[in-house]
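User: For a benchmark we're assembling, each entry needs the component sequences followed by a predicted structure for the full assembly. Here are entry 17's components. Please fill in the structure.
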Amino acid sequence: MALPTRRIPFLRNLNAKIAAIPMVLVASVVFVGGTLWTVVHSFTDSRLLPSTNFIGVEQYERLFDTPRWQVSVTNLAIYGSTSLVFSFTIGFLLAALLDQKIRFENTFRTIFLYPFALSFIVTGLVWQWILDPALGLPNVVRDLGFEGFDLALLGNPDTVLFALVVAGLWQGTGFVMVLMLAGLRGIDDEIWKAARVDGIPAWKTYLFVVIPMMRGVFITTLVIVASGIVKLYDLVVAMTQGGPGFASEVPAKYVFDFMFQRANLGQGLAASTVMLLTVLIILVPWALLMFRERKG
Amino acid sequence: MTTSLTATPAAVDGPRGRKPRRRFTPATIMLYGVLIVAAVYYLLPLYVMVVTSLKGMPEIRMGNIFAPPVDITFQPWVTAWDSACTGLTCEGIKVGFWNSVKITVPGVLVSIAMASVSGYALANWRFRGSEFFFTCLLFGAFIPYQVLLYPLVILLRELGIFSTLTGVVVVHTIFGMPILTLLFRNYFASLPLEIFKAARVDGAGFWQIFLQVYLPMSIPIFVVGVILQVTGIWNDFLLGVVFAGNQNYPMTVQLNNVVNAVQGVKEYNVNMAATLLTAMVPLIVYFVSGRLFVRGIAAGAVKG
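Assistant: Structure for entry 17:
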């Protein structure tokens, strides 16, 4: 390094700064700039093309008055809460079972996790076929002798969400299991020995000692899984296309349809801003918590 | 003699007494029972895909979805690859396969190259504001894609690369950046600083240290990054639909068009063969990489 350049602070480590330009551009222009652009333009009357004619919160009023959006939000809430409860319960149970020093642990783990490597499109299409009312699982049950059995999960507006949950759980539980297993392995063996000496049954040790100790793992997993659920889109497109009727519409699909198919950009932007707010509500408390734990 | 001396304490401290008999207690039977039931549930869809793709349509209409094929036929696979209809054309899923290859290969290379250099700069060459930008970048990992879709459409249109392969590769690089940069930054930060200092003393600069010192000792983390990106980009649907343009639609989009086509008779065997063909690449990556895949998703999980 030539000596004179050291005097100018901006030119110090110039190569490093040049190398970091893409990262800086992505962070500032795309992530921060793009988010601001979307939020600002959600207050305009943009139709086919973005406009700068501001109309206040009108887009949001119209959004929350639209039945399709109301259904989408309700659906996401039902899908989200159901799949969170089940994926955490099943994921933790599987992890606890795998943690019993069993044989073939790797084989079982590989089997439980492989759906996570598949896309939501593949997941949705397979389950669409398995749940096919005429030729799929319902048909097999009928053949077993339950004549009147009509499990048309996908064709019934009341049950279509649970078909999505079943498919989503198949794809994502393995991921929860892996994170939980990592958390369980992080628990000191001494804890287990102490519990055993005190004669505490294993399930009580899990419930009152181990799970509280794994608080951090649970919260992190919750944040990741929950912010993934908000984005739910591909699975719905592949499995139900939002149907029957609007029965399985979700917010992400509402945004896409209004932005790219109905030429109603303002609505799409307002809806996506609401999605962003939802993610922030999940994220900010967690970020503050992590920050405080690191400080103290 | 010394070797036998060091060996004896281990033998003395080792297990003593009779070897305990392995017994099938009710608890272990329950344990394995539950695990096996769960494994069957997870494997069932894969099994159904394979079986269905090997049957003829008459057999599918007559029979049971779980029954193994009586007359094994590979015709559905040929049709799915070569002549299934995706919207307007009937050239099979192979078009989408090659599009996905054309998106995934440069997408993986560019995003890994950019993110590894950024991670290295953030770990070893901090400058004023670098942590601030890194925080913004991590924030980007959580922003729903829907929020950034339209700004990116405008950006790519201005650059003249909207609806092109270049465009979709750029978008994948952007969205892959937060996780990958974090992955590489944490890895490089975990390397002993003495190595870095020694190289500095020897007069190596920014690029020299990266290419000649760090790169050779970081192969595993690069493999993890490649696994993460190959599966991520291959499985993407939304970004492909928006940014790739009709003629470049990736395999997931073409697959969805094949299966969810409104017109024509549904050929379930062809559909399942096409689905399996699309699932093949990530499945191979998963089964070959094994532990590294787990490491990749665990690395993605410790954001913040």
